[in-house]
Design goal:
The structure is a single chain. By secondary structure, the protein is α+β, with helices and mostly antiparallel strands. Helices cover about 20% and strands about 30% of the residues. A hairpin with a 6-residue loop joins strand 1 and strand 2. It is flat and about 95 Å long.
């Protein structure tokens, strides 16, 4: 009796059988094994790439109308759900772009707690939290229920205390303590640009980590959110956006690792050694062990908010360069009072060093800012970070005379212990003598 082969037993009457199964069964066993594993790799590759898909979820924010008893669209507010941010447009609409894991967590939990934040006001450096409450989510329509900013909004936490808010994200990992806005670093290592060696392969999925004192720190951008992936340009230069940095506890040494594992079977890394003695404000070029070059600028813990001026395109660029030279991280912001309002007041928190205040005043004078008030030490309402600095516009000082330049020049020669006493008479907008 002749035994039938597996190929003879197969039904090739279908189109799939004629085209695929007949060819597969006629292959040697070793070839079929290879084809099977190649199919698995293709399926794994497609699955991994599908995780990069984005799901759009939208909603609307309404606020009371001062002219009648109804509601109106809340324009220009931030809507926050844990680590996700969205802004409201002119019609009060906002849209979240969620990853598959975030979207799965949203489908699982339904109701979610959303926060509403407003832009900073005068004398403030960060947004103000207006409301925090739970809203329902329509799974079929991919819509959050309308969010009303009204009397039901509880008295919520201000910026700088978000670590006390418990977010229910289901499948999502918790935020690292290094990313929390309450964890103010002692120093910031600003990352400027990275020139890649030719041996690197093109990728958009590399990452950078700082290893220092037994701790590791991920790359962040303001306001203290994870920066994400780095694009590798073999033989080219990648320029980082303003405000991209590593939090740090010391300016004495450490190592930065650049790594890429975007390929299925490939992994590459390069290390950059930090010198033992870095000075705030002085750029440091680093050479990697593969030949790439990374430029960093070590800075102190202070952040200075500077408002743009619509009538002077060079104002911000010149001032930010001077602030970087003295070790202060500048942050651009649109003035809540209007871009036609130039800076006339310096606000500096109690933990800002007197030497830093003197350097900022000198930079302001150099760049033509007419200071009418210097509030130091100043307590900001919107943050617990007492190392913050703001060069802003104060309405109460609009018609006040500027502080005479000769008085400000005397500040440079004042001992650090006497700076607060010297500036006390400039803490308001009265005539300065």
């Amino acid at each position: 009796m002749v035994r039938k082969t597996s190929a003879q037993q197969q039904d090739y009457s279908t189109l799939f059988g004629k085209i695929v199964l007949s060819k597969f069964d006629s292959m040697p066993e070793w070839a079929r094994v290879c084809a099977f594993f190649i199919s698995l790799l293709v399926m794994a590759y497609v699955t991994l790439h599908s995780l990069n898909a984005k799901y759009l979820v939208q909603g609307m924010v309404l606020e009371p109308n001062a002219k009648h008893t109804g509601n109106q669209a809340a324009r220009g507010f931030d809507v926050r759900w844990a680590e996700s941010y969205a802004g409201t447009d002119s019609k009060g609409h906002y849209v979240f772009a969620l990853s598959p894991l975030e979207y799965a967590a949203l489908l699982k939990n339904g109701n979610q707690t959303l926060q509403i934040w407003s832009p900073p006001g005068e004398g403030e450096t960060q947004d103000q939290q207006l409301c925090q409450k739970a809203v329902s989510f329509d799974r079929l329509g991919n819509l959050f229920a309308d969010y009303y900013i009204d009397g039901s909004c509880p008295a919520t936490l201000q910026h700088g205390a978000t670590d006390a808010i418990a977010f229910n994200r289901g499948l999502l990992p918790a935020v690292s303590a290094a990313v929390s806005s309450a964890a103010i670093p002692d120093y910031r290592i600003l990352v400027r640009n990275l020139r890649f060696d030719q041996r690197w392969k093109r990728s958009d999925a590399a990452e950078m980590i700082l290893f220092q004192g037994g701790e590791d720190y991920q790359l962040l951008n303001l306001p203290d959110n994870p920066y994400g992936k780095v694009s590798i340009l073999p033989g080219g230069t990648f320029s980082f956006a303003d405000g991209v940095y590593f939090p740090s506890k010391s300016l004495a040494g450490g190592r930065i690792r650049l790594s890429d594992n975007s390929g299925i079977f490939s992994y590459a890394e390069e290390w950059f050694n930090l010198p033992a003695g870095m000075e705030p404000g002085k750029p440091v070029p680093l050479n990697g062990d593969l030949g790439s070059q990374l430029t960093i600028v070590p800075l102190g813990r202070s952040i200075a908010t500077v408002f743009r001026k619509s009538d002077d395109p060079h104002y911000y660029d010149a001032l930010t360069q001077d602030l970087l030279k003295i070790g202060v991280l500048p942050v651009v912001s649109a003035s809540p009072m209007g871009e036609d309002k130039g800076a006339n007041t310096l606000f500096a928190g109690s933990e800002v060093l007197p030497s830093t205040v003197k350097s900022i005043v000198a930079a302001a004078v150099k760049d033509g800012i007419q200071l009418k008030r210097i509030a130091y030490p100043y307590s900001f309402k919107s943050t617990t970070d007492n190392s913050r600095i703001q060069l802003g516009w104060s309405k109460q000082c609009a018609d006040a005379p500027a502080i005479p330049k000769e008085e400000l020049d005397k500040l440079a020669g004042t001992a650090d212990q006497q700076v607060q006493t010297f500036l006390q008479r400039f803490s308001n907008c009265l005539a300065h003598h």
